[in-house]
Design a protein that fits this description.
The complex is a heterodimer of chains A (86) and B (179). Chain A has four helices and no strands. With 86 residues, chain A is an all-alpha fold. The longest helix of chain A is centred in the last third of the chain and has 16 residues. Chain B is of the alpha+beta class and 179 residues long. Chain B has a four-stranded antiparallel sheet. The longest helix of chain B has 55 residues. The chains are: A mainly alpha (86), B alpha+beta (179). Chains A and B meet through helix 4 of A and strand 2, strand 3 and strand 4 of B.
Chain lengths: 86, 179
């Protein structure tokens, strides 16, 4: 039998998401820097897209900084705009 | 006096010789000097792989320039970079508005000096490591020589019949294409 993930009225129940903590807020010594492509890789998908806030868990302030840094890094060829299809 | 602080990163072609690279760097810095900008720092990051090809080049030499200047200067500077042939790409970023020149220059002086100390230390460590490696390599070579000498005597008798197919195995394995 499949696990019952519907409530009494038959609506799909979503799992309660665990609140993630923004890593930049948690560790004040971390800085967002567009020159540091290695640590920005954390916030892009394999295809080179920016990972949304709801998944990365960044706060609004730091997500803005991260996305800005990624865009700058792309411009100077430190990060790809997109990677070719596999 | 208040100016703005900018950072320009430019990428040079990877096929330049080292002296040429230095010459190009000087030429570019000279443009800034002429326009009356105060250069804070000139640092070469070295040859890096580009995330995507620029002018069919897979690699490039990254150079970063930090300076204080008026906004107009940046425009003129970028115009020069655009004309300049060995420059593949450039990007200017405003780091801060309204910087007190004297104060910032003094700050940078301190920073540069601190970095020099670190750099010197690193160089020393590297030299020590290289020396150690060389000593190890020499020791290893000596050992190998000894072993080889011992072996060659052993093998002399068996060599005659095993010499035939050693050449066939040397062909390189073709590398799979990147996906």
């Amino acid at each position: 039998m499949r696990p019952n993930n519907k409530d009494k009225k038959g609506r799909k129940r979503r799992p309660i998401p665990r609140r993630k903590v923004c890593r930049f807020c948690a560790d004040k010594s971390l800085k967002v820097d567009f020159r540091d492509a290695g640590s920005l890789k954390f916030f892009i998908t394999e295809r080179g897209k920016i990972i949304p806030r709801r998944i990365s868990g960044n706060c609004a302030h730091h997500q803005r900084q991260v996305s800005m840094a990624i865009k700058r890094a792309r411009q100077i060829a430190l990060l790809p705009y997109s990677t070719s299809t596999i | 006096m208040l100016l703005r602080e900018y950072e320009t990163i430019y990428i040079l072609r990877p096929d330049l010789a080292e002296e040429e690279e230095a010459k190009v760097g000087e030429k570019i810095s000279a443009v800034l000097d002429r326009e009356g900008a105060k250069i804070l720092k000139h640092s070469v990051w070295g040859k890096k792989k580009l995330a995507y090809e620029i002018n069919k080049q897979p690699k490039g030499v990254y150079v970063s320039l930090k300076y204080l200047s008026e906004p107009v200067t940046v425009k003129e500077f970028e115009r020069n970079l655009k004309i300049f042939d060995p420059v593949l790409k450039y990007q200017t970023i405003k780091i801060s508005d309204r910087v007190d020149v004297e104060k910032r220059l003094a700050e940078q002086e301190v920073e540069n000096r601190a970095e020099e100390v670190i750099e010197a230390k690193r160089r020393e460590e590297r030299a020590a490591r290289v020396a150690a490696e060389e000593a190890a390599a020499a020791a290893r070579a000596e050992e190998q020589e000894k072993a080889a000498a011992a072996k060659s005597e052993e093998n002399k008798a068996a060599e005659d019949d095993s010499i035939s197919d050693s050449a066939g195995n040397l062909a390189g394995v073709p590398q799979g294409e990147e996906e």
